[in-house]
Every structure is written in structure tokens, then in C-alpha cells.
Amino acid sequence: MKTASTDNPRSGITKAARHLLERGGISALSMRSIAKHLGVSAMMPYKHFPSKDHILMELRLEAFQRLTTHMRRAQAEAQTPTGALVAVSQAYVGFALKAPNDYRLMFDAWEFENYAQISADFGDSISREADSWHVNLDAVTAFAEAENLAIDCNFAAHWLWSSLHGMVQLHLSRKLAFGMEIQQLEQIFSEKIPTSIRAFSQK
């Protein structure tokens, strides 16, 4: 059991919620379970967050920020646009495999009873949801420019994004068939990404 920080109780609540999320997934989170973990009254979290969904949104945006950082680091460390394209994709999958409960929270907006209102409550910070997508788009665009490809980069980036997401979701829902492991699938997919993006060329 932890004690909520008197200096920054909001941060203490978020940390407790993240601990519960990592241990038991979204179903393990409630205002009562957070309060119990912190050793405070059941009403204390409500002084800093209007609802459990607001805490979940806070965790969600933090997770998107970590994914973006992970992808940007992979992009920066790559030696070529082709390498960056593959590295960004691998970073995306790697993040999902390392933090599956975070990933589920990030992309399952239906978990929120009033997503539109909660998003509005977070104001401009909600834009962090899109930052990782823009890293993906930047990697595709840089690759296309380096290869002098006449492609719709937005469309190609959406294809790549949806392919990565689909692969991860199939893995997390245990729907990969015929004994296929995601590590094997990711390796094959990564090798084919540059060729697949080139196939969008209008030349």
C-alpha cells in the first residue's frame, strides 16, 4: 500500500492507477481500488479527478507520449530513410508488446462512457493522441522523398499504421492462426515494408 503524496496528490493518483493498470488491466481500475492502493479515503481521488474515466484519459495520453518518444528515438538512431521507416514500425510493435494494457487503453476509446466530453476537458493536451501517428507519417514521407516516389504519403502511412495495429490486435486477442508468432510475423513484415510502400508509386 502506498501513501498519496501531499505535494502532488494528482501525480500520486496517476502513479497508483498506472500500477493497477499494469498489474490487472482496465478492469482492475476503480476510484475505490486506487484509493485503497494509496491508503486514503474512497473520496480522495475525486478531489483531483472528476471520474475514473478522467484518470484513464490521463494514463492514455501519457502512454501515447511514451510511444511517440520511443518511435522518435528509433527514427533518430536510424542511418537511412529506409532504416528509419522500418525502425519506427518496429518501435510501434515493440511498445505494444512491452505494454499491452497501455496499448489496449490507447486504442479502445469505447472504454470511455463520454469520450467527446472527456476529450474536451483535456483541451489542447488531447493532441498528444496524434503525435505518434505523425512520426509514422514523417517516416513514410522521408522514405518516399529519398526514393523519389510519386505516392500519396498520407494514404501509404495509413496503410502502414493500420497494418501494424491489426497485427498487434490479432496478437493481443490471441487470434493469430496456425501457430504464427508475432515476432516471426513482424520480422517478415518489416522486411517487406519498403517494397510495399514502393508499390504505392504512381509512376
Structural class: mainly alpha
Order of helices and strands: HHHHHHHHH
Round the mean pLDDT to the nearest integer and report it: 90
CATH topology of the largest domain: Tetracycline Repressor, domain 2
CATH class of the largest domain: Mainly Alpha
Number of strands: 0
Global Rg: 19 Å
Instruction: Give the domain tally.
Output: 2
Q: Please tally the helical runs, counting DSSP H or I stretches of 4 or more residues.
A: 9
For the termini, the CA-CA separation is 62 Å
- Unreliable spans are none
CATH superfamily of the largest domain: Tetracycline Repressor, domain 2
Backbone shape: elongated
Strand content: under 5%
Major sheet description:
none
CATH architecture of the largest domain: Orthogonal Bundle
Quaternary organisation of the protein chains = single chain
Helical fraction equals 55-70%
InterPro entries: Homeodomain-like_sf, HTH-type_TetR-like_transc_reg, HTH_TetR, MT1864/Rv1816-like_C, Tet_transcr_reg_TetR-rel_C_sf
Pfam family, one: TetR_C_33
Protein name: Putative transcriptional regulator, TetR family
Keywords: DNA-binding, Transcription, Transcription regulation
